[in-house]
Nickel import system ATP-binding protein NikD
Amino acid sequence: MTTKTNRKESVQEPLLEVENFSLLFRHYGKGLRESNLEVIRKFDLTIHEGEIVAVVGASGSGKSLLANAILGILPDHAVMKGTLNYKGEALSHKKLLALRGKEISLIPQSVNALDPLMKTGKQVQTVIKEKNKREIQNAIFRKVGLAEETGDRYPFELSGGMTRRVIAATAMVSGAQLIIADEPTPGLDPAALHETINFMKQLAKDGKGIMFITHDIETAIQVADKVAVFYAGQTVEIAHANDFSGKGEKLRHPYTKALWNALPQNEFTPIDGTQPFAYEATEGCIFQPRCPISTDICRQKQPAFHSVEGGEVRCFHA
Ligand SMILES: Nc1ncnc2c1ncn2[C@@H]1O[C@H](COP(=O)(O)OP(=O)(O)OP(=O)(O)O)[C@@H](O)[C@H]1O
Ligand code: NI
């Protein structure tokens, strides 16, 4: 199953290509019986230069694991399967070590990512290659809504929101070609959110590719060109940001429609049930137990990812 040939995108080699990607945790039960917990299942995503792709999913859907897998920072009992390519070449561990922090940069979800013993300004400056480090650091601090003096403070002297801004600022000035931002916006006030979104767009204009992970659909459609909707470890749909409009008529997957219509400014209709763990799912479609339009085939088989009206979807009824 490959969807690559269906995509109407530039012929340029994508920055990041994730295809049929699964992530398992080796797990030892009673009597050292080994079993595998599959937390990401057959995930597909492509990011080109100049493109911002949002990955939207509920808590526990596997977003941070995906980000960490791309950066090669997973626990020892994690097993990856499938394709992970950077500029057309497999992202081996060795290659990752060479690219990490230089060509590929992570804005981690955890606010513990800063060195507690180094002033924040210095930390940001360590990734700046140019000579006028202090000036560049001050400029990026202003952009993300931090006072210049913040650079002379230690991480423990900052609030959670300020810490997030420092972390985001670090990735923004790193010169990386691919930025994986894992929930970079919670805790930002509206003005700083606006600035951050504009700055991400500016980075994309400069040719960088950005994976923007969030559980917030509204932020996703403001910042991204494409939105990948993640459900229990699987991409159920890749839509264009402007497909999110009206009552969601242009959206392809029932879960995406449900997410859209659950927003307060839309119908405010909650979705019944809860997201399963990816490894709990059986043969059928992962969304089937909560799906309003499911039929027999949805219980029997897993739908393949296929193109529908310029987007992609994993549903028999789209
Ligand atoms: N080291 C681990 N070993 C086993 N299971 C794990 C491990 N880390 C995460 N998981 C499981 O994998 C699933 C996905 O976790 P992940 O942190 O990627 O979710 P997320 O989408 O980033 O959630 P959030 O929005 O809350 O940050 C969860 O069910 C979690 O329990
Ligand atoms: Ni997360």
About this structure: Residues 25, 39, 57, 59-65, 75, 109, 215, 277 surround adenosine-5'-triphosphate (ligand 1) (CB under 6 Å). The longest strand covers residues 34-47. The chain has nine helices and twelve strands. The longest helix spans residues 190-205.
